Amino acid sequence: MATKEYAGKMLELDADGNLKNLNDWNEDIAKAIASEEGIVSLTERHWAVINYMRKEFIEKKDAPSIRKLSKESGVDTKELYALFPNGPAKKAAKISGLPKPKGCV
Fold this sequence. Notes:
- By secondary structure, the protein is mainly α.
- Helix content is 47%, strand content 8%.
- The protein has one domain.
């Protein structure tokens, strides 16, 4: 199993490079992952998406797809791509400490 240090903690990663354990996540770890993904700072809009994704995952045991994100998070598709370039659902899930959404390549 792969491990990586984020915010001073060694954490286990899944095969896709996302956190293996949902409970290892916190805001400092999210900021470290975002930085690694090329997002310099997380804005209020980033946090709206992150918090929505975590809530959905906790309730439904699956990270939401880009379609569901754009319909239900309050952030439209164009803005999602601006906030999380090159695959917003996949990147937002990683920053949120969640597994890659099932519909993502």
